[in-house]
Amino acid sequence: MSVTIRTKQATYEIPCEAGERVLYAALRAAVPMPFECASGTCGTCKARVKTGQVTELWPEAPGRSYLKPERGEILMCQCALAGEGDLEILVPGAAPSPPEPTPAHREGVLTAGERLTHDVARFSVDLDAPIDFSPGQFVLLQIPALEGYRAYSMVNHAEGPTRLEFVVKQKPGGGFSRWLFDAEAGQTPVGIFGPLGRATFSAAENKDVLCIAGGSGVAGMMSILTAASGADYFARHRGRVFFGVRTLNDVFFRRELADLVERAGPNLQVTIALSEQEAPAGDGAIRFATGFVHQVAGEAMAGRYEGSIAYVAGPPPMVDGAIRLLIIEGRLPASDIRYDKFG
Amino acid sequence: MTWKRACAADEVAVDSLKKFSVDGVELVIANLGGEFRAIPPACPHMEEQLEQSGICAGGVLTCTKHLWQWDLRTGEQRGPAEKPLLMYEVRCEGNDVMVRIDEELAYEYGSEDDDDFEW
After folding, report:
1. Distance from B116 to chain A by nearest Cα, in Å?
2. pTM of the entire structure?
């Protein structure tokens, strides 16, 4: 089966598997597509069906609030080709260059890992073949017990690893986290699509690195810091990391962050911001501060933004606060602010 | 030509945006620091309400949804933005910000014509 996709620039005819999401079919064919979350929330991949039928896979997707259904608008990440007929889709949005490396469907085996705090746990996925991804990227995971895909940023980074490491925060009503926390210890086959995401780091950036993360948003930062450290990036550039959680009991990756600081030397500074508890004294490798992470970052960074590239991830209000800080106080150009929009 | 009062100059702080309804026409007033601009209330990209999603700083408007940016002095797009801002003419009379509204300005987010990609 195939789908015809028309953008402002070109027309593409791409193969599409039965039941496959149109966006994923386009991305794995390296077609430039507008998208951010690829999981139904941001609305960026909206398009219009010109001819043919699609199956709506998630009629309640939050991103559908951006659509005008009476015009035949769809979210490409939440629609699959229906039936045998031809499908022609018009894509209005800006289509940046296709993601690198080209994403693909993969199979893997998920293993639940240790709890890091009362509501954060590790998990990993073993693949049958190595995967290349850029530090800061995410993949979409599909587990048999739940409908749809969920996006998780990789924590690790290596050349062509066969294991991907993740963290998940338990959320009220969060189907995946409840499944993972409740699941009998064991191994579960999962579907994977990726890698995706443009909030990536390359050692060729030649800029200082500023990371502002809240909660499990630190996952992608760990991947970036691991890659930067492996390239000895902090011998020549500064790295400033601000990691926000509520209390000391919510801190995780403290040892891993301290190891990164130890390896990098004085150019890498890590500050953990506690929003609901008085900050304790630091331990040499890690500093502590009291306040919301973007406020703590704002105080520490005043007058020091120039020449930085900023990475932001976390809960939407924190991301919004950090973006405002980076634009208003930091005066950073949009091209030097990197985050993947999930809301 | 119809000049209408949108707001008092001191209702919109420097480097901020505020939405007003002027004779039924919704628009956002931006204060660039004594200079004002009047634009439609929604981002030309995905119709985000700029009063919430927009940041006005140093004469640049940024929509935080996808970091589209514009020079508020001219309306020209910057960086990843693909469309310029539409702007109403503005002048100050005493403490009043006056806006010239001949017709409501709106972006083309879609077209009824299937072959028209300007949507």
Report:
1. 10
2. 0.92
